[in-house]
Amino acid sequence: MTVPAKPPPFDPDDPLGLDELLAPDELGVRDTMRDWAAARILPGIAEWYEQGRLPDIHGLARELGSIGALGMTLTGYGCTGASAVQYGLACLELEAADSGIRSLVSVQGSLAMYAIHRYGSEEQRERWLPGMAAGEIIGCFGLTEPDQGSDPAGMRTRARRDGSDWVLDGRKMWITNGSVAGVAVVWAGTDEGIRGFLVPAGTPGFSAPEIRRKWSLRASVTSELVLDGVRLPADAVLPGADGLRAPLSCLNHARYGIVWGAMGAARSSFAAALAYSRTREQFGRPIGGFQLTQAKLADMAVELHKGILLAHHLGRRMDAGRLRPEQVSFGKLNNVREAIEICRTARTILGANGISLEYPVMRHATNLESVLTYEGTVEMHQLVLGKALTGQDAFR
């Protein structure tokens, strides 16, 4: 008779034993990103958030490039060619520090670099990707407009031919990295359909004023892109991008990172609440000893680790080439929504201290309000799943 192995002790940090699903190289990526964030982001993030700035963003980008965090899943051109799970783990650890840092990495790698890598010419890839992978060039992705968010097909930015050149006019809004970017991937309507253009910083007629007075993603650069008669040569067009499917594929890649990243913000808030419950005393004992607090902590732990397990499953599907856009919508819808609830519940455990920047909870909660709506609102992902479930398109 075989004696069953004795299970390992229960680990409050990993109650389902999910670390056992990770290979050594995956654990290595996770630990590298966690250590970098602990050393470079956590000491200053509360002050940066309070002041509404991200100091030395170019220096941070170069450091992120040096540890292989930029364009992780891409191959060649200085990119690391990491797996989807490795990239997801990186997003989780970076967003555990702050959503703004994960946004910097997501926009750089999953939007700007991904667009150039997948849809650009070889000359465009050689020109831009090595510097972007190293963090020497920051990129941004211009799709959303002041009057067009969930319906990008209605964009008003236009590009018209003038001889062999293109001339762009329009505006883009809520663009992460915009005012610090060396190149902007801008999507515009043409007589031939929606096309993508590479707009270098400093091009006459192109400007990127920073958006201030935000109450969310305060440690992140958010900008408007203004295109006023911007003249570009013919080779500024992404030759492989023809139609709305191209920018949407980029967004799908970035949304996958959010599935993981939201759980990083949730984990940070849960950890703060758990630690607080062990030391904060009321009525002569730690509040973690009361049934209502334990019920909150148990529910938070269940949703947190279910979300991580979902992200892991989607990552394995992506690595196998089997991940569908509807499944990414499933993950984004669930994980961001549950992450916000975890942060809100954590705030109740911390009481008044929960609104202080001495703790990460309120910062994560306000950041996630932006993550909830960017790259697809709750309603849009519900309708994506609704169409997949019923076969009926309810978007219009």
UniProtKB/TrEMBL annotation:
Residues 140-230 form the Acyl-CoA oxidase/dehydrogenase middle domain. Residues 242-389 form the Acyl-CoA dehydrogenase/oxidase C-terminal domain. This is Acyl-CoA dehydrogenase. PANTHER family: GLUTARYL-COA DEHYDROGENASE, MITOCHONDRIAL. InterPro entries: Acyl-CoA_Oxase/DH_mid-dom, Acyl-CoA_Oxase/DH_mid-dom_sf, AcylCo_DH-like_C, AcylCo_DH/oxidase_C, AcylCoA_DH/ox_N, AcylCoA_DH/ox_N_sf, AcylCoA_DH/oxidase_NM_dom_sf, Glutaryl-CoA_DH_mitochondrial. Transmembrane segments: none annotated. The keyword Cell division does not apply. It comes from the Bacteria. Residues 25-136 form the Acyl-CoA dehydrogenase/oxidase N-terminal domain. Belongs to the acyl-CoA dehydrogenase family. Keywords: FAD, Flavoprotein, Oxidoreductase, Transit peptide. The lineage of its organism: Bacteria, Bacillati, Actinomycetota, Actinomycetes, Kitasatosporales. Its cofactor is FAD. One of its GO terms (molecular function) is glutaryl-CoA dehydrogenase activity. One of its GO terms (biological process) is fatty acid beta-oxidation using acyl-CoA dehydrogenase.
